[in-house]
Amino acid sequence: MTSFTDNLKVKSQYFLPKTFLSRLAGQLASAEMGKFTTFLIDSFIKHYNINMKEAKITDTTKYKTFNDFFTRELKKGARPIVEDKKVITMPADGAISQMGEIYKDAILQAKNHYYSLEALVGGNQDDAKYFENGTFLTTYLSPKDYHRVHMPYTGKLEKMVFIPGDLFSVNPLTAQNVDNLFARNERVVCFFKNEKIGRFAVVMVGATIVASIETVFAGTVAPKCGKEITIYDYRKDNIVLEKGEELGRFKLGSTTICLFEPKKITLAKGLTSSTQVKMGTILGEINSK
Question: How many structural domains comprise the chain?
Fold first, then answer.
């Protein structure tokens, strides 16, 4: 049962100017404010107990903006990628929110809460049909986590879709209480193809105070695209990203959702809802034909 305080936290999001607050936060996070920027970064590190020893740049005075710090690069080897070609790897640091089978068009959001696969990918039935009855894994990135998103497997980029929407928080409390959360928030869907596992997709979901979503091949996608669904067709560009290669990043945290075709992969044993994971570790294995 949701407490009064938790209920207030959820209900207040319906009335807050979430988009305005998020864009304002984005402007502040991208501003060069000298010592005040360093103060913000140091306070953030202390509050969330962030391990800066794994960062490529450990001196916080070297970050010109808060965004530079938040999307910081890690030292080489800080996130080793499982090289086995049968293994699919985690795209991001965080906690598994939900995982398992997609029931026709329904994806589990939280206990007793489902949302539409077709809505998640932008309302295109042709895009959704590949993943019906397939496999999914949702990862929640908290403020303390590393916020670059990487490839779970090698794939040729076919299409990217920007889908405008709300900017609700995506923390566990909100996921348990706001219907269709991931299919109503602003998001970017990247579609890939691989000869071994067929088509797969990585969805980057926006949230309150998420200033922007970027990809390595298009730069800033959200909020640049505005209020219309925007489709980028990359089928003729021959863009191939290797397993573990950077795909994109969040400027302030959010959620990723991986989608796979049915019967192509088996999720790794021991993974459950709330399991803490690191980018590059085992998500699952390719099924033998």
Answer: 2
